[in-house]
Amino acid sequence: MTEEQLEELVTSLINQLTLAEKIGFLSTKQSGVSRLQIGDYEVGGEAAHGVVVREGTPTTSFSIPLGLSQTWNPELLKEVGNVIGTEARILYNQSGKRSWLTLWAPTIDMERDPRWGRNEEAYGEDPYLTGRLSVGLIKGMQGEGPYVKMVAAPKHFFGNNNEIGREDQSNTIHPRIKHEYYLKAFKPAFVEGRAQSMMTAYNGVNGIPCMQIEEINDIVKGAWQMDGFVVSDGGALTLNVEAYKYHGRFAEALADSLKHGVDCFVDEKELVEEAAWLAYRQGLISEEDVTEAVRRILRVRARMGQFSPSPYDQVDETLLAGQTHGELSQQVALEQVVLLKNQHLPLNSQARILVTGPLANRLPRDWYGGISPYGKTIYQGLRDEGLEQVLLVDSDSQGYFKLADGRYLSIKNGQLIASEDKSLFTLERWGAGSYLIKDSDSSRYLRYTDNASFNLHQSEVYDWFIKEKWLSQDEITWQTWDGQEITVLADGQVVAGKGPGTELIFECHYQGIQEAAAISETVDQTIIVVGNHPLINGKEQEDRPSMALPEYQQELIRQVMKKGGEVLLVIVGSYPFELGELANIPTIIFSAHGGQELGSAISQIIYGRVAPTGKLSQTWYQEEGLLPEISEYDISRTGMTYQYAQSNVLYPFGYGLTFGELGLKSLSSDQERWQEGEAIDIELVLENTAGHPITETVQLYLKVEGEDKLRRPLKSLVGFRKVTVAPYSELKIRLVVEAEAAHYWDVAWNRWVFPSGKGIISAGFSSETVRETTLSLEGRIRQGRPLSSLRDPANFDEYHQIALTVNKFKEKGVLLEAGGRVEYFAVEAVKGDEMMIELEAVELTELVVSWGQHRQSQQVSGPSSIIWQAPMTGKETFSLTSNQPVFIKTMKGG
């Protein structure tokens, strides 16, 4: 069928549905309508780096999205998306076509702060890079044409970059940074990728929960013309009432969300449908509101081929987690590895190697990872190279837990007890007082159970709540994962939450650090593999407590280095780390977690079989203590990301070494002037003087020096390309930069504007560029803004100590905190012009209205309004300042 025929089919179905049947589509568990041959269907599932089946069926596992982003290769991500789509279609067929085609991926939140617990899930800190990569993945997932292989659902729209408080707090994001940074990352997914679904975020933006913000209708469905359906995040309807308390009843919350563009609710089916019926009966929504949502849902299901034959119906089921897909997983793993420093690679294949560290022989699974058909650790990868001279030393400690009364902890019938006998345990130290304890004999972890006891569980730690985690600050007194004191009773029961904590002294029998340090003296090279556990100290619902490597891992590195041998540090992680003195280690590799071929990729790079080509998608900062609060979303003021960071950078955005070095011989453009609507051509010449091919990613950045005093990025990525240059040769490449790259959001006129000023185009192999050229930008010179244009107080140019939020009537405005100020540049007024300011003050407050050097002070309290009158004709900065909190609701000038 054509697009038009599919739409006619949807209209025909809609016209035959009753209201009750329509409401049956509003939750993710959608009821079928047998008389119309519409089957039951369940929306949802995950596909961050492969289709996630958490129990049972293996699927192909790629590197986590952080790793995908480090490939800087949109075409490779399109292949990854194609595999995800194929495996989703296989599972869909196997399910009787009841689920698996509407998965929630990719995550394209801006990672402006590496302390975010879910850092592993997205594509870095730059909106342009994220846009290019996400378009590649989405096109691969969905395919081309009126039918789709599966449905991509970018998430979480928008401003979602902290876990603590995400369910009941709002983030202040002013208009310029909203459009130029946070929304810019999402736009390509819909305009170019034609993503058929989208998930909103839990958090609020400017006082309003994201499931009820106007940007869903106005921008995503309006300006970007997304014609698929929008879902809320999991349980968001419940949280809207019970946690955020934005609405007092589910009917109100659902009605508000439905009218603002959410079509499908990820909550209990009964809750959603009861709320919808109540909202309808109370006149909060109409049948037309429900029909619009259902039309979007059925439109997408029609494109999936649920109501007519699809070209994607037939798929080879042997491809699921098969060899072909595994080969692509290896390619991705290779391309995402970032070489941070190098003095030793590639290693001599005859060298005696020691491999140690907590991640040397582990592949811990992240929550958004499925079950791989196999998994190759770094140690296994090195051994698979056929090198017998690779030794593995366990860096964890083993020992016994002793009580003050002389008894020991032991395992009896799979349960933890205290007795005269003692069991040998392995203690894994993951930092910030977090531990895992496993029985050394069975390699099964101790897990806190619902009956307050501890049993041996699985050999893998994997769950939403990590009940295997033990907490301690001194390794003497211990708590469960959720902070309950662990107590040993007189009868030997080990329980939690039933009394004061019992001292448990760990008597070390095997010291992994000392063993590794001793053996390191007998080998040619020691490879230490460190990093984070993806389910501990940084994951969904938990921001990172520290950016440093766990202290135990740092001590392992220090002790090995004291022996004087050569050390290769391999960091496997979900995010950037603060390295401190460890940055002085001569050779450092960074790899993201995940992927069944991680070990193979690392080993091939270590021995020089393949050269590393990965590039960082996030800035690595030197000192965590110099970073702002994680709740500060205005990167232009906090100096976060490469766009605004002027210091405190260890490794810059876009950085990554390879074997050999290309030269950037020249950068030029045949244009000296740049105007709105024009694209500029940039020509670069790369030179390889080495005797082997070199693959590099050349990067193009733009800095705008406008004829105004607006704060702008130091530079912004506007183009890149991954290329291979043959030995002893030059390669000429051409990159095209669209005029849109120079646009800024003009708050005075609420629109995108091409500026006037100077444009500096620079290029290099990271954001620390090496060559540049300058163009004249011949756009709009920002003149004045008439007093009459000041309507929305949020459209300021500068501010201090404010929050964008809503009042108790859900009216938007600017909250000036004590000492708060907003400024509006170049406001034009004629003598006698008046401005009425509507406001609310909790207590008696002095509000100062300034226009240039003229100040008017007025005492205000409660809901009120003041009138300001221009004392002269001119153009000056208009500002409001208060000594106590005051909510500015509207401004009406004229």
Automatic annotation (TrEMBL):
<dbReference type="InterPro" id="IPR013783">
    <property type="entry name" value="Ig-like_fold"/>
</dbReference>
<keyword id="KW-0378">Hydrolase</keyword>
<dbReference type="Pfam" id="PF00933">
    <property type="entry name" value="Glyco_hydro_3"/>
</dbReference>
<dbReference type="GO" id="GO:0031222">
    <property type="term" value="P:arabinan catabolic process"/>
</dbReference>
<dbReference type="InterPro" id="IPR026891">
    <property type="entry name" value="Fn3-like"/>
</dbReference>
<dbReference type="InterPro" id="IPR036962">
    <property type="entry name" value="Glyco_hydro_3_N_sf"/>
</dbReference>
<dbReference type="InterPro" id="IPR002772">
    <property type="entry name" value="Glyco_hydro_3_C"/>
</dbReference>
<dbReference type="Pfam" id="PF01915">
    <property type="entry name" value="Glyco_hydro_3_C"/>
</dbReference>
<feature type="domain" description="Fibronectin type III-like">
    <location>
        <begin position="696"/>
        <end position="767"/>
    </location>
</feature>
<dbReference type="InterPro" id="IPR044993">
    <property type="entry name" value="BXL"/>
</dbReference>
<dbReference type="InterPro" id="IPR001764">
    <property type="entry name" value="Glyco_hydro_3_N"/>
</dbReference>
<comment type="similarity">
    <text>Belongs to the glycosyl hydrolase 3 family.</text>
</comment>
<dbReference type="GO" id="GO:0046556">
    <property type="term" value="F:alpha-L-arabinofuranosidase activity"/>
</dbReference>
<dbReference type="InterPro" id="IPR008999">
    <property type="entry name" value="Actin-crosslinking"/>
</dbReference>
<dbReference type="InterPro" id="IPR017853">
    <property type="entry name" value="GH"/>
</dbReference>
<dbReference type="InterPro" id="IPR036881">
    <property type="entry name" value="Glyco_hydro_3_C_sf"/>
</dbReference>
<dbReference type="Pfam" id="PF14310">
    <property type="entry name" value="Fn3-like"/>
</dbReference>
<protein>
    <submittedName>
        <fullName>Glycoside hydrolase family 3 C-terminal domain-containing protein</fullName>
    </submittedName>
</protein>
<dbReference type="GO" id="GO:0009044">
    <property type="term" value="F:xylan 1,4-beta-xylosidase activity"/>
</dbReference>
<keyword id="KW-0732">Signal</keyword>
<dbReference type="GO" id="GO:0045493">
    <property type="term" value="P:xylan catabolic process"/>
</dbReference>
